[in-house]
Nucleotide-diphospho-sugar transferase domain-containing protein
Amino acid sequence: MMRKAICLFIVGEKYRKMYDKSKAQFEMYARKCGADIKIINQPLDDKFHRPLLSQKLLIPDATKEYDMVLFMDLDIVISEKAPSAFDYLPENKFFGAILDPRGTEEFNKTWGHIPRILEETNEIYFTDRHFENNELLEGSINGGVFIFRPGKVAEIFKDYYFSDHNQGELNSFEETPFAYFSQINNWFEALPIEFNTQILYKIKGTDKGNSILEKEQKLPRFFLKYYYKKTGSCMYPTKAYKDYVNQIIAENYFIHFSGNYPIIYN
């Protein structure tokens, strides 16, 4: 019988509070998938050879009792219609994630204020982080959701983590090595974008999102400043924002609130 788990990385009080708010959705989704919940609540390398974010590279080694594992960040809301992500990793593939939507209108609008990102090709993305170019490279990924077969990938990611390789000033922590090694070894499966729909792109990269931002900026400055400081969010959840987010949740599977966008739980 296939042993499956949903892995959550909960290190620190901030993330414990986030988990407490979303525990029910993860448990419900795990039941739908026939998977255990695997919680990691301590650093996987207490000597910190690399930063905590990079320790995601050690998660496959820490979950080798399972055949397949789905990792999810805690700032994700799961739609009720989400199918089992475990069904989307073919038997001959060992690591899956969504590719960054490089070249799309949403991507270009979101990152238009940073020319370096717009000019970055797939090749440049990897070589600028000190990885050799390879014809099998497909592109950069977002590390908020990924699925893998621990027994197949654990050693290579662990070896990289403890290596002396340095990504330089453009360090992308776990994302670049995950993408690089899975792609050059032909293990990689690009997941449908619905499994990691980022609010960042929907707000900054669409006309509707831009209009919501414009309305939010009409609120009193002192109020917004207070709210940002108190909550750590990057914007105030107006009714228009909530309605738009609920629409996005209804149309997708996993909605990712990376970038400190206020989480709207369904």
Observations:
- The two ends are 32 Å apart (CA to CA).
